[in-house]
Amino acid sequence: MRDAGISGHTKAVTSALRYEALDPLRHDPARAAILLDIDGTLSPIVEEPSEAHVSEGTRQLLIEISRRYGVVACVSGRRASEARAMVSIGTISYLGSHGAELLRAGWTTPVLDPRLEGWRRRIQEFGAAADTPQLRRHRIRLEDKGAIVAFHWRGARDEVAARTAIDEVAAQAEAAGLKTHWGRKVLEVRPPVQIDKGAGIANLLADVDADVDAALYVGDDVTDLDAFDRLGRLLAEGRLSHVVRVGVRSDEGPQEIVSQADIVVDGTAGVRDLLALLIER
Predict the structure, then answer these.
(1) 37 has catalytic annotation
(2) Residue of 3, 23, 28, 37 marked active site
(3) Burial of 272 (0-12, 13-18, 19+ CB in 10 A)
């Protein structure tokens, strides 16, 4: 947030200053985009990702936000259809697999970035070959994200040994010409094609019917830094006149989420308070 009369980072600020920072979005919500990560942002991180959920209180706030703001989207590492099932709001859009998939409000089927179609089978074959008995003994869980395969070691009996095994998988992926991306106790193996949340939201904003002039993004992990960076570039290029990057502070989260954010909130409860400010009259 380098405009709208507020200089520098507001960081962990009072409700009054947060309200001021959000005012340009609240003033003309029809021309504003509200973009949100899910895991660790709308939903607490849990040991089993399948058990994660968005609270009903947060859902109701999002429903009200979707009625007022021009663009509302969840931007997730999960598949787009899985993200929508988790949030259970059909009137907002979903960018899945870190922006590789788009599921627009009202659509029944997500669309995969056409650059990735030819890589899906190769990525899945790599995942199948890497899913060895050794990985399973470490309780490393594979997640199929279409054009991405993720290796999770959260909940492993010996996380140090599991990480060593994951490092070997990363080396194999890079030797095969694939890209690796690290998150909170997860390794993702991706095609050598740009896939990140920043590129995904740039494409979304370039293609929406609404004339978006301001954007807010909320995230908690390394992958959200790409969104922070792209929004900063859109602001510098004059394609947006106001940007707010909100970092969700947590024990496991990267320090860059705090240092690069305009506003910092604590956990999913802090996100919920922020959402309430967006619709406060």
Answers:
(1) yes
(2) 37
(3) middle
